[in-house]
Structure formats: structure tokens, C-alpha cells
Amino acid sequence: MAMYREKRFEEIRQLLAERKELSVEDIMHAVGVSRDTARRDIVALVAAGQARRTRGGIVALTFGHSVPSYTERLKHFSKEKTAMAQRALQLIHPGGVYFIDDSTTLLKLSQSVTDGVTIYTHSLDNAIALSVKSGVALHMLGGELNHHGRFFFSPSNLNTLSRIAFDAAFIGATAIAKDGVYFPYANDAEVKVVLAESARQVVVVSETEKFHIQAPYRGFALNAIDTLITERPLASTERAWFDPVTELLDAEN
């Protein structure tokens, strides 16, 4: 039994090194154990200093110290992200004008958008997804391509965005702290600042793991968020960060 347990731990460690984060369900399926055993394994790995515990699973010790590339994040697309995108889709209405940010979850939103709307984006992947929808008026913001984040930027984009009162701007957070929403690139944070000021509704779509990640550039304060969409209900400590008028939605309800 002891040898089997060590072999199981080794498989979990290898999987964690690849994915950077694992849920209880991931561990159950990967090594074929019950939920109780998966939870005990999590406790043991955390106690041994081989992982960091989160609500519902574990993350690698290095998780949060660097931001994975868009391509890397796309490998870990989850049913939770799909559910969050469906929540966001309910806020898009025919005839509206919207901005959709560079985010793997918001790529799913772009793939799900139906005809009769106008979409602005600086995301290469969103533009590709929307380009096949003949009933969508697509406006692609140009400039230099950031290969890591797969978005375009030009200073002229800031002026363009400042003159559009978007019905809603859908923004994917890299990190969320008490004092605001953060991003890994200074020029992209500038885009988010302008969107927060110009959009009629600021919708941040973010997994709750972003509360445990750090990024260097602040985009806007939390009180600028009109609607926050997460994969699960916020814990009371997380909820306390937000203005009482902020609409808190989750993919579970």
C-alpha cells in the first residue's frame, strides 16, 4: 500500500507540473481514487511542501509567480470557463456594441456570439472566431502583435476606444487584489483603463484563482466593475472587497 501511495503521489506531482493546478476531480480521475482519498492526498502533498492548497484543489508552488502565455492557458480550457462564457453571453443583446478582451474564456464568448451585434476586439483569436460570423460587425484594433498575449496594441487604439460608449466591455482579469484588477502588460492595462471609463457596463469575467495571482500593472479599481462573473460563488472574504452595488454572478447558478 505504501509503495502504491508513493507511486500515486509521483503521478500527481507530474500532472501538477504539467497543468500547474489540479482539482479534487482531476486527481480522482488521474489516479483512480475516491474523493476522500484525493482529499487526503492533497493534505499530504501540501504538508510535505510539494503543493499549495486552494479551494477545491492544489496549485504548483510556482503558480502565480509568472503569468502563463495565452497558448498555455488555452490548453487548460475547462467546463467552468465554458459556463462562465455562457453567463456572459446573456448580457449581449441584438443591436448592441461591445468590446471583448483577450482571454481564453472570452474566446469562448466570441465563438458563441450570434448575429446582429457590433464587436470591437484587439485579440487575434477573438477576431478569427468572429470573422466567420457574417452577421457580426467586427472591428479589429490593430498595431503591434504581442505574441505572448496574442493581442494587438497601438497608442491610437486608446483614442478610438475612448470615443465609444460600449454597451458593455467584457474584460478578463489576470489578477484581482483589494485595490484593483491587474494585468501583465503596461500597454494592455492602458486599454483596460480606457474601457473602464468609456463602457456603460464593465463586465469582468475571471476565475477565482485570479485572487491568488499577482501581475504588475493596475488597470482599474474594483468599484469600476459593474458585473463580475466567476466559476463559483465568492467566499465571504472575497465578496467583502466589492462594492455592494456590484453584481456578482457565478457559473453554478
TrEMBL record:
SMART domains: DeoRC, HTH_DEOR. GO terms for molecular function: DNA binding. Residues 5-60 form the HTH deoR-type domain. Pfam families: DeoRC (PF00455), HTH_DeoR (PF08220). Keywords: DNA-binding, Transcription, Transcription regulation. PANTHER family: HTH-TYPE TRANSCRIPTIONAL REGULATOR SRLR-RELATED, HTH-TYPE TRANSCRIPTIONAL REPRESSOR GLCR. This is DeoR/GlpR family DNA-binding transcription regulator. It comes from Lacticaseibacillus mingshuiensis.
